[in-house]
Amino acid sequence: MDKLKRVLGGQDDGSTDGTGIMERANQASTLAWGTRMKGFLICFILGVFCSILGTCMLWIPGIGLPVFAVLYSIGNLCALASTMFLIGPWRQLKTMCAKERALATAIMLVCLVLTLCAAFWWRNNGLALLFCVLQFLAFTWYGLSYIPFARDAVMKLFSICI
């Protein structure tokens, strides 16, 4: 009855223990470690398979590039979603938007959408291929952010080469 009074009186913020709805959803969907690893592996392997299959389809005349764009983009989304099994969806979204990854995440997602637009809406094969390359580079830069000093090492390697 007290809960009803608080809700009707506008004093209840919707949480019972100080956590928001997203935190409660994340806590309610906890999986065992083995299940998380299986989900990660299945999702990651599916992503790699879609990307490789898309690359093989690239050489089919006429329909190759749109099929490649879709499969490659689905592959990247699956690979990105695979880590959600390891750390949970809410924490994954938080780390994707962290200061050191926000730009790479934004570029990757924008390039993913632009890849599909170029392949289907604009029907421009050159742009679709360019956006796929940019998507790959942004995804690689995003992945390197999880390895300590990897970005610095890559930057140093390119500065030496140039």
Question: What this model shows, in words?
Answer:
The protein has eight helices and no strands. The protein has 162 residues and is mainly alpha-helical. Helix 3 packs antiparallel against helix 4. The radius of gyration is 21 Å and the shape is globular.
Short description:
This protein has helices at about 1-10, 20-30, 35-55, 65-85, 90-95, 100-120, 125-145, 150-160.
Secondary-structure map:
Elements: H1 2-8, H2 21-28, H3 33-57, H4 64-87, H5 89-96, H6 102-121, H7 125-144, H8 150-161
Question: What share of the residues does DSSP label as strand, in percent?
Answer: under 5%
Instruction: Calculate Rg over CA atoms.
Output: 21 Å
Structural class: mainly alpha
Order of helices and strands: HHHHHHHH
Oligomeric organization of the protein chains: single chain
Helix coverage percent of residues?
A: over 70%
Distance between the termini: 71 Å
> What is the makeup of the main sheet?
none
Total helical elements: 8
Number of strands: 0
What are the defining features of this structure?
single chain, 8 helices, globular
